Inverse folding.
């Protein structure tokens, strides 16, 4: 039970860090403009990374 709760916490933190880093890299490092197209592109990129993260965690959990 404890390991399941710890896994959920680590998974939630990973998702938060993934979204934070995607938007930070996009707007601060690459210097994208704050417009709707940039938000859409970064959302698609973070969605793809999130799907990859889900696949990695589901393989580890088995």
């Amino acid at each position: 039970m404890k390991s399941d709760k710890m896994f959920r916490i680590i998974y939630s933190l990973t998702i938060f860090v993934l979204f934070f880093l995607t938007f930070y890299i996009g707007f601060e490092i690459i210097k994208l403009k704050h417009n709707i197209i940039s938000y859409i592109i970064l959302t698609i990129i973070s969605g793809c990374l999130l799907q990859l993260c889900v696949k990695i965690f589901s393989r580890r959990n088995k």
User: Anything to note?
Assistant: The mean pLDDT is 81. The CA atoms of residues 15 and 46 lie 9 Å apart. The chain has two helices and no strands. The helical segments are 2-29, 36-61.
